[in-house]
Amino acid sequence: MVVSFFSGNESVSEFSQGQLVWITIVGGFALLLGVASITRVSFDHIKQRKKDWPYKVVLLVFLAVSGLGGIFEGTEQGTVYDWLFQNMNAPMMSTMFSLLAFYIASAAYRAFRARTLEATILLITATVVMLGRVPMGSYIYEYLPQITDWIMNYPNLSVQRGIIIGAALGAASMSLRIILGIERTYLGRS
Amino acid sequence: MVSLSVILPLILTVSLPISISPESQRLFDRVEAIPDGSTILLTFDYYPSTLAETEPMSVAALRHCWRKDLKIVTLSTVGLGGPNIADRVMATLAEEFDKNYGIDYVNLGYKANYQAVLLGLGQSIRSIYPTDYYGTPLDSLPMMTDFDTYDGFDFIYIISDNGIVDYWVGLVNARYGAEMGAGVTAVMAPKFYAYVRADQLIGLLGGMKGAAEYEYLVEAEGMATSGMVAQSMVHMTIIAFIIIGNISYFATRRRNVS
Amino acid sequence: MSADFVQFIELSIAGFLTLCIFSFLYKDNPFYRLAEHIYAGLSAGYYVGLIWNSVIVQQLWIPITRNGEFMLIIPGILGLLMFTRLSQNLSFVSRVSIAFVMGNTAGISIMQQLHGYVLPQVADTMAGLAVGTDNWYSLAGAWVIFIGVISTLIYFYFSKEHKGVLGVTARVGIVFIMISFGAHFGYTVMGRVSLLIGRMQFLMRDWLHLIN
């Protein structure tokens, strides 16, 4: 992959392209491995009649219906697979994440304290950004949106840039360690 | 309190004017400058969990593109839901704009391991996607016959709720020079200002506010715009919670000290 | 059955499941657990259908059987070897597949990180300082960014104690970082609230028709 980045040779490009196709295929099986794992864990749970085992039956039933529907009927609009996704899976997934709004409000009252100078800076900035990014902000102070833009485009940008550079250097060195065989934790315990 | 702050503005259907951020304006202007009839890549790189923020962006982007008769190739690097969301949104708007599958838009679907997908598309789309999402060979689709790499796209419009934008920038923009812009959730947005400044991204939409801005620019107000007043109310509520919480904290601390 | 009635049933199922999830705000209860397990099952089943069609049929079966691309049998075998991970005795075999993917990914990643992130970001940071003095605002902004980037990187450099010049720069970095984290927090609140607004719009407009 590294050689193909620098080399203009057609054979090298073709070989690396072939490798990329192979990775997408192997990656697909890796996702199925997760499904196999959850199926096995659920079966064990039911077999041993552990606590809440009827819920695992429900899990396996819906897994089977959705999976077999996708295999035999296809995955496009109008199929059982798509119907289950649009009317059951998607609403539930959206709702799970929307619960966080309530917890943020609760945390805002209980935990966000201006105990130190740094915390005060954080809270003031958060307040300015929260007001500047909604229409009501410009009614409170007409330049609030512009101040928010400045915060996002200068101090915030510089910190994010520093983090991007630092993280990229770290990731590059980790990749080098993997290539050289120094890092083998991804293989699991020997 | 939070629920009331959301429900009341929705019931009262109040609206407030929306200010446009420079990043949203840049993205709009760049798409507006694409010659009519060109082909772009529009991605549905988001999970159903963030539909409230990302679907309005997709809809507004689609309206903008189809108003200019742009041909759209779509794909998703998100396995759980991306292809089906793309399927639904594209089909719904295709009916409104009288667009035909295979001629005006194509859904490539999903392939595993997004790093390999993004890099592989730069050499050959057909090697990664031999068929579209529905199993039709790409050579059978009229709009896919003329190109096989990113060179066939005038612009890449990414709608995402996760760090895939990093990979689009780091792999596709850096290696193949493809121009791109992104609409992302509010949680992800602060990071990508660095890419906008470095011109690795042409423009950026951030969260529901970004979606509302784009809806305003495209003159098709939708779900995001209608949620802005509720957004304002909840923000005020949370700020009030922070202030009240801190007042009680400092009052308690002073009482304990004295 | 009319289309409107079918749509009402679909919306009611979605609405019921939405309320089941929301019931967790009160406390963990059988409705929430039922919805949670349905969700887990559907998500897993979704992947089965997706990978079957996108990978096994479109990327393996059709190319091998119709186009004679027999080399694709190799990644197919590598993929199947992944499943040996489920067996205690044979799990070592899956390392072949994992190593194949990780090796390629590491190679892609090195160039991605350096060429895609480090070089463009550093270049833009320095290029901003080269702006002429005609545009004082841009130059001042570029210096703010430069100082912010350097002080942030120094703050996260833990190989040397933060004393003297390093200590002062790290303190400046903390101020920048707190401003950025504050902005992040503001955006995070915005994001989470948007998701709640989306669900309320669904419940009140699409399902119960209480709003237009």
Description:
- The complex is a heterotrimer of chains A (190), B (258) and C (212).
- Helices cover 78% and strands 0% of the residues of chain A.
- With 190 residues, chain A is mostly helical.
- Chain B is of the alpha/beta class and 258 residues long.
- Chain B has helices spanning 2-12, 22-32, 51-67, 82-97, 114-121, 125-128, 164-176, 189-197, 207-217, 223-226, 228-257, and strands at residues 39-45, 71-76, 105-110, 155-160, 180-184, 204-206.
- In chain B, helix 1 runs antiparallel to helix 11 (228-257).
- The two termini of chain B are 34 Å apart.
- The model of chain B has no long low-confidence stretch (mean pLDDT 92).
- Chain C has a domain at 131-212.
- Classes of the chains: A mainly alpha (190), B alpha/beta (258), C mainly alpha (212).
- Chains in contact: A-B, A-C, B-C.
Give the topology string of chain C: H per helix, E per strand.
HHHHHH
Mean pLDDT of chain A: 90
Spatial separation of the terminal alpha carbons of chain C: 26 Å
What overall form of chain A do the CA principal axes indicate?
A: extended
Decide which structural class fits the backbone of chain A: mainly alpha
Beta strand % of chain C: under 5%
In short:
By secondary structure, chain B is an alpha/beta fold. Helices cover 52% and strands 13% of the residues of chain B.
Topology record:
The complex is a heterotrimer of chains A (190), B (258) and C (212).
Chain A: H1 2-6, H2 10-47, H3 53-72, H4 80-98, H5 100-110, H6 117-132, H7 137-140, H8 144-153, H9 155-179
Helix pairs in contact in A: 2-3, 3-4, 6-8, 8-9
Chain B: H1 2-12, H2 22-32, E1 39-45, H3 51-67, E2 71-76, H4 82-97, E3 105-110, H5 114-121, H6 125-128, E4 155-160, H7 164-176, E5 180-184, H8 189-197, E6 204-206, H9 207-217, H10 223-226, H11 228-257
Parallel strand pairs in B: 1-2, 1-4, 2-3, 4-5, 5-6
Chain C: H1 3-22, H2 30-67, H3 73-81, H4 94-129, H5 136-155, H6 164-207
Helix pairs in contact in C: 1-2, 1-6, 4-5, 5-6
